[in-house]
Specification:
mainly alpha; 2 helices; 66 residues
Length: 66
């Protein structure tokens, strides 16, 4: 019996996603995920640069002490 409910829910979701509102929802989700992905990439890039800079400073200090 549960599979019938699941089948009906799936069919309703597919029907909705084929309507204009559903297509707009898909486009909005695509835009948001692209934006989030770009933000995460920028954040990771900044963290990598900062980490590289800190590592370079640590090496310089270690060389100065030695």
């Amino acid at each position: 019996m549960k599979w019938i409910i699941g089948l009906a829910a799936g069919a309703a979701a597919i029907y909705f996603l084929r309507t204009e509102k559903g297509k707009q929802l898909i486009e909005d989700v695509k835009k948001e995920t692209t934006s989030i992905g770009e933000s995460l990439y920028t954040l990771a890039e900044g963290l990598f640069r900062k980490g590289t800079s800190l590592a370079g400073k640590a090496v310089e200090r270690a060389n100065a002490i030695a």
